[in-house]
Amino acid sequence: GAAERKRVVTYCGILHYISSPHISSPHAMSEVDVDRSVMKIATVAVVSVALAAALGYAVSIGTVTGAQASDALMPASTGLLWIVAVVLQVFLIKSGRIALALAAVEVAAVWVFLPARFEPLVLAGAIILLIARYSAFAAGRAELANELKIKFFRVGRRATGLVVTGAALFIALYLASTLTVSTTLPRPLFDVLTAGSDRIIARFVPGFSFAVPAKQALQLVAASQLPADAPQTAIVQLADDLAEAIRVKTGIVVSDNARAGDVLYAAVSAQAGRIPRELHTAAVAAFALLIFLLIKGIGFIIEWIVLAVAFLLYHLLVATGVMYVTVEGANKEIVVVP
What we know:
Blueprint: H1 2-19, H2 21-24, H3 38-64, H4 73-92, H5 96-111, H6 120-145, H7 152-182, H8 187-194, H9 197-202, H10 214-225, H11 232-250, H12 260-273, H13 277-297, H14 299-319, E1 324-328, E2 332-336
Antiparallel strand pairs: 1-2
Helix pairs in contact: 3-4, 3-5, 4-6, 4-7, 4-14, 5-6, 6-7, 7-13, 7-14, 10-11, 10-12
């Protein structure tokens, strides 16, 4: 009868619905904004936060312990790896809320290790870094949404550029805050800024180096100012006069065991401490601008190092099955983390 036919039609409709592709195939469901694997997302989060914490610790070590310029390798390497993790998150994480929460935890992990973390400049830098960090994710996801195929380097460059800019501002403001607190130039930063300059001086003062004893360096300077046939006594006398001039002008006594670099650092720090209060803010701003421009100046190198490492890790994750690239909708490539 009619009721029987109605039951058959309803039954067939249910079978058709269950067997349809969007039900039978889990991968046919919309994957663009779906974070499926909680465990894998949590692993990404833990690694990213650990790298951020390592970056904050490395920066704090450099500014507290007075490490040498060679120790800048540690914060530089951890910083690069953290940015690599940030770039990969654009492909691995879909949810904007998860990305924002992770960005906040990462920035907090960097900030909490800094000795002057409650200084206004450091707090401002942390906020800027958070904005840049999340903006990098949002810009990368927007780039993915606008392309039918995944163009790794285009997406990665958008994200990397924003993170590097935010990190440069954060580091500049943090280092400037150390001047605000102590009015002295951090030794690691001095070493970085003067690295290689002794070789330039050596072109005019043969044998000069920041590593030689200060009194020997003064004698080398004196010898370069006197005729080639000047007696040793004249050279020593002029060197002593230079040492006395340094003492009078800066208050720094050139001791027998001090290196030339140590005396120069002490003299520069002494002069920095005498900056008038009315000029101090301008000096700190100029210093922060200098640091920002130095980092941005090598931003192109940073960008391609990060992209090269991230690209290799991206394909490693695909090759090992952590994620895969498939086609959805209008032949659009997406990343799925099962």
